[in-house]
Amino acid sequence: MYLPLAKPALATLGIFTFMGAWNNFQWPLIIANDTNMYTLPVALFAVRNQYFAEWGLMMAAALIIVAPVIVAFLAAQNYFIRGMSLSGMKG
Fold it and tell me: How far is residue 59's CA from residue 45's CA, in Å, rounded to a whole number?
């Protein structure tokens, strides 16, 4: 009875948790001592050279890194819209 009303909130929580884990930067940077263990944002930071950055390569990598988050949002967009429409109703 209560779970159908909680689906939009759970979808939002799932997306925010996924985004937080996917974009984690500081902890993997501190704890990883091998470049094979880096998360994607840390690896993108490591691609940048000390004196010169290939911006085209970095933007292409950033697009690839952001793509799963965009796909997850588009998959859960239906729940976001439903949650907003339910929150406007008076019961």
Answer: 12
